[in-house]
Amino acid sequence: MNEALVDTLRLHPPSVIVIGASAGAVDALMQLLPPLPADLPVPVVVVVHVPADRRSALPQLFAQTSALTMCEAEDKMTLQPATVYFAPPDYHLLIEHDGTLALSVDEAVHYSRPSIDVLFESAAESRGDRVLGILLSGASRDGALGLASIREAGGHTWVQSPETAQVAVMPRAALELAPHVTLDPASMGRILADWGTRRG
Amino acid sequence: MTGVETTPDDRAADVEFELLLEAIWRRYSYDFRHYARASLRRRVTSAMRRLGVERMSLLQEALLRDVDLFTRLLTMLSVPVSDFFRDPAYFTALRQDVLPMLATYPSLKIWVAGCSTGEEVHSIAILLDELGLLDRALIYATDINPEALRTAEAGVYPQARVPGFTRNYQAAGGTRSLSDYYTAAYDRVVFDRRLRARVAFSDHSLATDAVFAEVQLVSCRNVLIYFDRVLQARAVQLFHDALVPRGFLGIGSRESLHGFATARSFEVVSREQRLYRRLA
Ligand SMILES: C[S@@+](CC[C@H](N)C(=O)[O-])C[C@H]1O[C@@H](n2cnc3c(N)ncnc32)[C@H](O)[C@@H]1O
């Protein structure tokens, strides 16, 4: 099954990976991110629901266990491969057609800013079918519509298998709306590592 | 997956989007052509849902002849989202490091560009008041959203937002109680007229209008993120031209002057708070 997914990625490689997570995010990302190789050929853009008034510690947290470069997204940054961009607290994060990131303070979506839907929909809009969308643990409905729009555009869509999620509401909401591949985060990491190192 | 090879750029919706912006520009002289695409596109799509319009080309057709429809759309495209003392540390820096330096000028002039519904203007007026500078100050508060400007001018906000305002005010080092500055009326609060006595509200676009005054401080927060690099450069140039030598510029906490030609004419006062100073 995992071999088949690696092949799918090789046949139809994404140019960006977008990840959304909420409650239970740290645990899931701690399994998913560390296996990714230092020469991952694509950028990774992540929205984690975080309280608005807190400085995000996520980039520092994951830098210790990962070979990838971790940073907090700033307006108009150009996406680079092997780099993970986290949405800053209290801003939506979007991907533009020209390969740069954009921020906005538009209204919250599903009570969240940053919102996963906003990121995912912008990825589908700007990259069409060359997107891998990953939705992880969470207690919200955010991300379900966005993941469906990535799927509709022809991209790859993975959802954390509900039984492995600390909070299964978010994965379930996505699976109710559209069919997606379900995996535990550690397998996601391994598949991406296989694809990332055996490409070409 | 489709049979016809398409790149994201040549899809019909992209063409419709560009034509819509062009129509708005030519018919109403509001220039959204150099706004950051992804978020503008989202706002157009959500406006279409609210207006009950199926396609962008239909919206364009309706807009060309219906001025009222454009007025409604304009308020939906601009993003009137603001807060009192948003990012309290920025206002602490204004209070401690910037405004005292301006106290030496016989009259203080400040431009709040993209003032939205007035929260930032009121916050700055409160700082000036607490530093004993309000009577000598003149604040230009500008925006392209006429509805937001009306709210700003009225100084009326929902009571439900006050606890948040108060928390930010205190975090920003407020020396009084925020309730000294407003009176409650039913589910709303009205901020003192005195705070706005020295404020000139006006319609001004960073995309199309010119410099209108010389100021010692420009505060333009979370507006540049809505522009592409071309329009950002124009706005930063305007700020530069409006500022006196050694005047200050403050921008949003995730915005930067990095990479603009004009940036060479500024020095960094606080990288963390995104405060800059025009070189002499
Ligand atoms: C998110 S609000 C920022 C409000 C406030 N500065 C703050 O930081 O809380 C952005 C504002 O920029 C205004 N704006 C958008 N385009 C503009 C332009 N071309 N010129 C001036 N203001 C503009 C919008 O109408 C909106 O009120």
Describe what is shown at a glance.
The complex is a heterodimer of chains A (200) and B (280). Chain A is an alpha/beta fold and 200 residues long. Chain A contains seven helices and nine strands, in the order αβαβαββββαβαβαβα.
What does this structure look like?
The complex is a heterodimer of chains A (200) and B (280). Chain A has 7 helices and 9 strands. Chain A has 200 residues and is α/β, with parallel strands linked by helices. Chain A has one domain: Methylesterase CheB, C-terminal domain (Rossmann fold). Chain A has a 7-stranded parallel sheet with strand order 3-4-2-1-7-8-9, sandwiched between helices. In chain A, strands 5-6 form a two-stranded antiparallel ribbon. In chain A, α1 crosses α7 (185-197) and α2 (25-32) packs parallel to α7. Chain A is globular and about 40 Å long. With 280 residues, chain B is α/β, with parallel strands linked by helices. Chain B folds into 2 domains: 8-77, no CATH class; 88-278, Vaccinia Virus protein VP39 (Rossmann fold). Chain B has helices spanning 12-28, 37-51, 56-65, 67-77, 88-102, 119-130, 146-154, 162-171, 193-196, 229-242, and strands at residues 108-113, 137-143, 156-158, 182-185, 188-191, 199-203, 215-220, 243-251, 266-270, 275-278. Chain B has a 7-stranded mixed sheet with strand order 6-2-1-7-8-10-9. In chain B, strands 3-5-4 form a 3-stranded antiparallel sheet. In chain B, α1 (12-28) runs parallel beside α3 (56-65) and α5 (88-102) packs across α6 (119-130). Chain B is globular. The interface between A and B is medium-sized, with 26 and 24 residues. The structure holds S-adenosylmethionine (SAM). S-adenosylmethionine is lined by residues 78-83, 86, 113-116, 119-120, 143-145, 148, 205-207, 221-223, 226 of chain B.
